[in-house]
Amino acid sequence: MVNIPFSPQKYDYIIIPGIIYRTTKQVILDFLVDTGASTTMVDPRIMENLGYTPHCSEFLGHALVSSPAGTEAGYRIRTQKLLVYSSECAVTNIDIVCIRPERNVEALLGLNFLKHFKYSVDHKKCVLTLEKN
To answer: Which residue among 57, 63, 101, 126 sits deepest, i.e. has the most Cβ atoms within 10 Å of its Cβ?
Structure first.
C-alpha cells in the first residue's frame, strides 16, 4: 500500500507525479487523477519526445475522445511502463491516448491505470492511497 500526498488544488483536483518509460528514455510529469475518465491521456508533444508517435511500433491506432466539451482526435500508444509516485505503483504495457487533456494539464490518469489498484482519497489529509489488486 502506498500513500501519495497531494497539494490542495483549486477545484479540488488531485495531481500526483508519474513517469512514462520507453526503452532508455523516461519523462517525469504531473498527472491529474480522473476517476471519471476511462483512459489515461498525455499531451502528444510529451509522448513524441519519448519517440511514441503514430509511426512507432507501439502505435495501436487512431482514437476519438468524447467529453462534455466535445470530441477530439488523437492516437493510442502501448507504453512500456507507467509509474506513479513509487515502483509499487507501476503498470506495464498500458495504453495511453495521445491527446491534449482538458483542464490545462499535461497528463490525465484514468481508470485503465487505476483499475490495477484499490484506491481511496482522503481529501482532509490530502492523500491518495493505492494498493495493488
So the answer is: 101
